[in-house]
Structure formats: C-alpha cells, structure tokens
Amino acid sequence: MSCRSKKTKTDPKNRKYDPPDSLSSVGLTTPRRLRIADASHPFLLESGARLEEVEVEYETYGELSEAKDNAILICHALSGDAHVAGWDATAAGHPERKWRLTHPGWWDAVIGPGKPIDTDRFFVVCANVLGSCYGTTGPSSLNPATGKPYGLTFPMVTVGDWVVMEKTLLEKLGIDHLYAIIGGSLGGQQTLEWALRYPRMMGKCIIMASGPRLSAQGLGFNAVARNAIMRDVHFAGGDYFGKRQGPSNGLAVARMLAHITYLSGKGMDFKFGRRRLDAGDPQKGFEAEFSVESYLNHQSKSFVERFDADSYLYITRAMDYYDAAGAWGDGDLRKACQRLHAELMVVSFSSDWLYPPAEAREFVNAILAENKPVTYVEIKTESGHDAFLVDTIPVGRLLRAYLLAPGINRRSGAIQ
Amino acid sequence: MSCRSKKTKTDPKNRKYDPPDSLSSVGLTTPRRLRIADASHPFLLESGARLEEVEVEYETYGELSEAKDNAILICHALSGDAHVAGWDATAAGHPERKWRLTHPGWWDAVIGPGKPIDTDRFFVVCANVLGSCYGTTGPSSLNPATGKPYGLTFPMVTVGDWVVMEKTLLEKLGIDHLYAIIGGSLGGQQTLEWALRYPRMMGKCIIMASGPRLSAQGLGFNAVARNAIMRDVHFAGGDYFGKRQGPSNGLAVARMLAHITYLSGKGMDFKFGRRRLDAGDPQKGFEAEFSVESYLNHQSKSFVERFDADSYLYITRAMDYYDAAGAWGDGDLRKACQRLHAELMVVSFSSDWLYPPAEAREFVNAILAENKPVTYVEIKTESGHDAFLVDTIPVGRLLRAYLLAPGINRRSGAIQ
C-alpha cells in the first residue's frame, strides 16, 4: 500500500513509479505490430481516401479468457501511445523512445496486477492511433508509392477512423466484444465514438475529461499550436524528414501552450506561483526566470525529442473535427444518444477548463433524456485536464468500482 | 442617444464608431512628443540603467482648468497606445499607423464630449509607455550611442518606470495632481503602481481587469508568446530592423494566443462556436476552416503590421515582473496597501480568467483590511478580459458615476 500511495501523488514531479520488478507492475512489455491493411485489402478512411499499408502498434497486458469476455480497450490521448503500463523492454534500441527507459507507461498507476484495471482479471489492449508517430502508420511513415515519408500527403484521419482501426485490430486478435472501453481527453472521444458506432460491442464505456465535441476555445488553442508548427521556417511544408532541422521550435511552442491548458490556474499557482529559479538575480531578461517558464521549457524540450510535428497536426485536427452530434444525430446530441447501448460513466474534473464539467453535464443530460444508462462523476481537484492522468487515487477507485459493479448488459456483467 | 447605443454593442465586429465629425467625438487628434530626458538629465530606470534620450508620445483631450484640477490620466494596456480617443489626423503619413484611418482611439466609446470620461469637464492625458513602439522610446528607437535601433540592448523596463515617465511628462505639462487615473489590464497595474508610488498625487484610481500581480498561468502564457517570437528564425536576436523579414510569424502566434486569453470560453462559443467558413467543404486540411481560426488569423495579421516584436517582449516582461506586494510591502500585500491614500475602485469582470474576480476580491480584501477607501464592482459578462474595452455600456456608466461622485480627498471631489 505504501508503494501505491507514493505513486498516486498528484504532483507529477513527486510521482514515484514502480520499478520494473515491482509486484504490482505488468513488468517488461514488448510493443507489437500488426498489419491490418495491404494492397488487396486497403484501409478506407472516412475522408474517402485509402491506405494500402497500415500497421498498428499495440500492447496487451494480462490474459484473454477462454470465453474472450475480459478484454478492456484503453484509448490514448493526443500525445499518448500504446505503451500504457509497465516498462518497454525494447526502448534501449530506439533513440526516439529513450524516455521509456526512465518512465513506465502513461497509466501505469492504474493498470497492473491488483491495480484498479486489474491485469489479473482483465486482458488490456491499447493501440497507437493512425496518424501518430509511435509505430502505427502516420505522416512520418514511408509511403509505399514513393518510398518517402508521407508528410502532408498523408490523408486526413478522424476519431472514427481510429475506432475502425481498433475494431479491425481486435478482430484479428479474436475479440468481438469488449468488457469495457476507457479513455481520457481525446481518448474519451474515441471511447464515445466506439459507443456510438458499435453500440453492442462493449459492456461499459468510461469517458473521462472529454466530451462530444471541442469548444471554440479548444479549437482556437489547437489552431495556435498548428500555426506555431506550420509557421516554423523548418516546417518545409511538412516534408522535413531527413533534413538537418525540423520544426522543433514550432512544436516546442505548441507543447508549452498545450501544457498550460492541461493544468488549472489554481493548480499552477500552487505548483509554481511566482517563484523564481534564482531568487538572488531577478529581472535578467527574457530567458526562463520564473519556475513556470523553466517547467514549460523542460516539458517542450522532452516533447520535441519524442513527437513528430506532422503527427501533431493530424491528431489535433482529428480532435477539432470530432462532433458526435454531427456524425450520429444530424447535429442533435440527444438524437445521437439514441444509438447508445453500453453503460456509460462520464467523469469530469472540477478544474478542467478544456472539457469543463458544465459541458460534461450537458452531455449527460442528453444521455439521460434518452433513458440510456449513465453514471456521472465530477471529481473535485485542482489538477485541471491532466487530472485523469495524475489524480490516480480517486480515478483508480472509480475505475475499480465501476468495472466490477454488476453490468446491466449481457456479456458485460462483473466477472463471477 | 441612438448613436451612443450603437457604439456600445459588445461584439467588436458590430461596433459602429463615431465618424470624425460626430458631436460626441473628440474629433481629429494629433499625437505629440516631448523629450523628457537627455544626456545631461538621463532617465534612471529601476534596473539601474540610464537612458540618455527619452521621448514620450502622448495625446490630450479637453482643456486643463486654470486650477489644474481636472486632469485624468489614462494608462494603456499591452498593445495599446496614447491614441485613446478620436481620429488621428496624422495617420495617413505613417504606414505603420494606417489602421487608425479606419479606427478611432481604443477607448473612444467612453472618452469625448458628454461621454463617461467627459472631455467637456476633464483634461484627459494618455502617454505611450517606455519600451513600446508607438512614439515613445523603445527597442525599435535609434540608440544615440550607435545610431542603430536598440533591439535587445534596450534596458529592461518596469511598470514603475512607466509611472515615473508619466509623472515626468505631467510635470512638464504643469500638472502636479490628477483628478483620477484609470487603466485596464496592464494599464490597471500602472494605475495601482501610481497609487502606491505617489499616493497623494491623485484623487481617484480606477483599476479594471487587473490586479497586484500576474498569476502563474499568466506568466506561462507570456512565456509561450515570447518563445514564439524568440524561436522565430527571423528574430535574429532581436536585431531584425531593416531586414527583409522580421519575426512576424512568431509575433502572429503570440497574438493569436493572447486573443484567446482575452475572451471567455462561453463568449467564444457564442461568437464562433464550431461554425465553419464554408459549410459545404469540411475537413480540407490544416488551413483555417473554423470561423474561430479565421478570426485569430485575421487578428494576428493586422497586429504584425502594427506592432514591434521586441516591444512585445519588453512589455510582457514588465507585466510579469509587476508585483505590488513585493515592491511596496516586502511581499505582504496588506502592508503595501498601507501606502494607499487615493480612493480606489476595483472593477473585475465575471468571465475574465486572466485577472479573475477571485483574485480581485483578495486584493480588495487586503485594501479593506487596512481601512483604505475602496469600491469593488464585479460586472457580469461573457466578454472575458476584453470586457473593459468592449462592454462600454456598463463600464461607461461606472466611470461616469464614480468620477462625478463626491471625493473624500482634498482636491479630488466632484467638480462643482
């Protein structure tokens, strides 16, 4: 318990992760890849474009039961990947994944043996999304038609495309029904899209720090981020691969900005306030002088080493475009909710201003108005949008309780 | 009246300004310049640096009374200038001020004959701050020692420096006491600094959408903005003057970001929502497609034509550094407030998240705790931080009422 309580402190700087040999870790993991499309079976995108080669990188933890009724799909957020838990055994061989040598998967605190998403009970799957840069085909992949990276010739991808991709992967793994799907932020939009697109394919859906569409403010922040990248002189129309320099400055600015939107104002005051790096030498100019500046610099530096700028464009655009009401209800969210069949839990965080509780409540009211089963939880926290990642004590408790509660749908009840 | 009510609509796009010959406009104005420092009387900055040439650009409206007791100082915000009201008669001759041909001063709605800050009663002064790019000496000015623009060799400036500069200007205009000082945002910090530095030099201070210091979140946003500018390959260490291209892309990104922070989330949903520019052709890629993207692009485009990137660095840094408690109370805001003598009105706007009402209330409580005269008003609005500029009906009513109310300090009562 002492180990777990250490792990779940809300300040990321203080978080202590399980060492690889910890009893509650899934231990060493190996990312896998599966080709889900080829020239004879191309992947058809919502835009109408086709991809003749699609490889998906994914990880799994735990064992699929004989009845194949214990699979949980985790959907990752904007900058996430398939490496959700444990320690990547292959990280040393990939310079762009070197951060994994010192960090476990991004939701390691809640996934593992005996943890809230208990890998002794569940078979957990997570796939990297199409358009990303962590193993699944994306703009930095080689275009088989040219032998060069796609860059901006990569077709636009959507949250719907990701769900279709995940379904294709799951079918290849022999899974035709999911015990649950869980996702936060953009992963929450994916979770919702699953519930709307394939309503009878899962028992429970847990949507955290997310909603049926992004606000105008969110659209604006994404636009600023993309502008920072595309206005970088080294962006080169997205074709910067193999060049001496890519749009790392633009990507750094995009990431700094994004980080502010992931935290709450009060949370930032608490964490950084107006503290200076060097109390004895104030007002030295334009270099980082306040702690918060140093934090943002540091975050952006590690990000540009691990993320691809083109992928950032594609994934933020998919986030912009996602509109559950538009896609499934002719613009009417209630009408879209008529499609729902799974039990839903919607979790919002009081200080999340990217997907604010008020918008989550509107969404829940639309679900309730259609008499669909939904649980709504608002967690009080100053951790902002990031709470689903960092407030792992309350999040873990909720996940554990909701996953094990008796289900109302056939094939989705608690494991006996 | 119909003319005035048109002018005060909250949507800037719908605002109709007075034509130059309108009865309630101050009419054509001429920016003036005054040298307030030279080699024998250098301007000493808080940093310890000296400027041997300081010119201040300022405007005045109305007439100074014989008793010199009707002067009101307006303090402008980050991207503001001395041109607060009326129509700049000299704009046609200055390409970088061409926007003034189609726009009156930035607070024209509240300043003029019969308007809330009534130029039939008051003598209104506004000076462009040191470090800016609208006529007052700044990084784009020629350094007399080199004959070239200062760039980043310009010394750091502070809100305190601006106040000293304004005091020097006022003395040269023969004014040793102000009826009132009024400012919003960074101009509100200037107003507060006036009240703390020269407590007996004014009757009333009106501080809007501002506070005694910037939050960690605000520091973060300014850091992102400066990073966007300084990471632009054309920034050239701040010495881009006379070159084919300056850091206009970085400055554009900075401005787009700033604009989001000036609006409220709800206000953006109301104004833009998820509307698209072209409903028939969605998902076309990474160019502006949503209305909000187009708005931000447009705002940034006009800004880079009129503002200097180095000035943006200096002024945001002054905003970062400002800390009334640190400067006047050894870190204790109550102690700083002991210095106050003027009557204060603090005005916050319910949806302003850059200087939130909660922080304004803390400030007001510190003033009250020291038994200093203060009026606090929170205006309910969805206009966000920009409300002090765009919600001119309630703001104008407040200004009119507060300025004309009997004053408690000698020399500062209502004009008989």
Count of discrete alpha- or pi-helical segments spanning 4 or more residues of chain A: 13
What oligomeric state is this?
Answer: homodimer
How big is the Rg of chain A? 21 Å
Mean pLDDT of chain A: 92
* Major beta-sheet overview of chain A: 8 strands, mixed
Assign an overall shape of chain A: globular
Order of helices and strands of chain A: HEEEEEEEEEEEEHEHEHHHHHHHEHEHH
* Residue runs with pLDDT of under 50 for 5 or more positions of chain A: 1-22, 410-416
The largest interface is:
A-B, 56 and 56 residues
Helix content of chain A: 25-40%
Description:
The structure is a homodimer of 416-residue chains. With 416 residues, the first copy, chain A, is an alpha/beta fold. Chain A is built from 13 helices and 16 strands. Chain A has helices spanning 2-7, 159-172, 186-197, 216-230, 248-262, 265-271, 291-306, 309-321, 324-329, 333-337, 357-369, 387-390, 392-404, and strands at 28-29, 32-37, 43-44, 50-51, 54-61, 71-75, 87-88, 111-112, 117-118, 123-127, 142-143, 148-149, 178-184, 202-208, 343-349, 374-379. In chain A, the strands form five sheets. Chain A has an eight-stranded mixed sheet, with helices on both faces. A two-stranded parallel ribbon of chain A has the order 1-7. In chain A, strand 15 (343-349), helix 11 and strand 16 form a beta-alpha-beta unit. The radius of gyration of chain A is 21 Å and the shape is globular. Mean pLDDT of chain A is 92; it is low at 1-22 and 410-416. Chains A and B meet through helix 4, helix 5, helix 6, helix 7 and helix 8 of A and helix 4, helix 5, helix 6, helix 7 and helix 8 of B.
